[in-house]
Amino acid sequence: xxxxxxxxxxxxxxxxxxxxxxxxxxxxxxxxxxxxxxxxxxxxxxxxxxxxxxxxxxxxxxxxxxxxxxxxxxxxxxxx
Length: 80
Prior knowledge:
It is built from two helices and no strands. The chain is mainly alpha-helical and 80 residues long. It has one domain (14-79). The chain is rod-shaped. The mean pLDDT is 89. Its main location: nucleus.
């Protein structure tokens, strides 16, 4: 009986709270893992968009350059 008087009177409540905390942390971890995988998918999709954007920028720059060259050649031909 002496050991019962030494026991923590709040031990059961503390165990319950600790179990709830552990359970919530596990749930949080699962949600964060799911979120990370979705963010990784979005990053892969965005990487494709970046490559397409670079292709378009290069195409636009080259087309503009070629149009300027053609425009200059036409001006020269008309003046001759």
